[in-house]
Amino acid sequence: MSHLINNTCLAVLLWALPAVAFAQGPNSSGVYYQAADGKSGAELKTALCHIIYDREEGGSLDDAYRALWTHFQTTDRRANGSVWDMYSNLREMTYVVDQAGNYKKEGDVYNREHSFPNSWFGGKVMPMYTDLHHLYPTDGFVNNKRANFPFGETNGDSYKSANNFSKLGKCTYPGYTGTVFEPNDEYKGDFARTYFYMVTCYEEKLSDWYTNNPESQPTLDGKAYPGLSSWQLEMLMKWAANDPVSAKETARNEAVWKIQQNRNPFIDYPGLEQYIWGSRTAETFHYATDADGISIARRAVTADEPIYKLSGQRVRPGSMKKGIYLRRGHKVRK
């Protein structure tokens, strides 16, 4: 009888804990992704679409597009203040001074690059045209070489930027033989997660894009799910795995969040793509969970609460050091 009474009292004490007991997502995202909890595969992709589609558009198309010049100074600034260009490493450009204008060669100016070409979604169409999650400042000359070709892998038989940083030419990745643009290995994961974001955020538009803009067809499949053509999805999954989420991407995601009020979940949750298209589609996503499956929810631990090491040995909360512990069936980080 006393055992039942003790458990009842403990339950009351746990229930009475303050609001910090609520689960929180990574990177200060709070409960932003809560509506996607418990889902996987196509269902998870759609749930994320409904979460991330809504954003602050920044006024009219012209105003929002013009504001990109200013936004880049926050979202894509290197530690030394120069432009963070992912298409060229010929020279470091200076914001405002080297902005847009005419160019004759690589290294002249930077401009606004739709990494997911705007012709694929019909041109100057909101909200895609000004969505910072796929817009980057890039070398104008190299950007022009890229044009609206899909991303791919190539030997660069048509063009190579300085130091062989970016390449253009016949696709060497199985499944496609057309012309492709290959970014540097350093940023392949960045662009893969950008494309995962685009086909998730705008999944309801993909069929229209595929039908009305043929140049998108090597990349898209015309369906809400999977959204990407088989060869492109396979390649981008490889790129994402080989080039994991970087501090640059995490900082940029936070900067874009402050401007647009929406996030790229594939940056917040490294490996999230596996729950949608890959090896973990049989598992369910939990927004308060790291990609490795360890709970990141945090709250105070009561003095008499049962806490255990992974070995099964019980420990006192006051003696816990940095590490992973078990609490009432959940993994807990100290």
Supply database-style keywords.
four-stranded antiparallel beta sheet; 10 helices; 334 residues; single chain; three-stranded antiparallel beta sheet; disordered N terminus; disordered C terminus; alpha+beta
Summarize this structure briefly.
31% of the residues lie in helices and 10% in strands.
What is the total tally of β strands? 9
Distance between the termini: 33 Å
Task: Report the sheet-strand fraction.
Answer: 5-15%
Number of helices: 10
Write the H/E string, N to C. Answer: HHHEEHEEEHHHHHHEEEE
Mean pLDDT: 87
What is the overall shape?
Answer: globular
Strand order of the largest sheet: 7-6-8-9
Structural class by secondary-structure content:
alpha+beta
Helix content: 25-40%
Low-confidence segments: 1-21, 294-301, 328-334
Task: Outline the biggest β-sheet.
Answer: 4 strands, antiparallel
Question: Radius of gyration, Cα only, in angstroms?
Answer: 23 Å
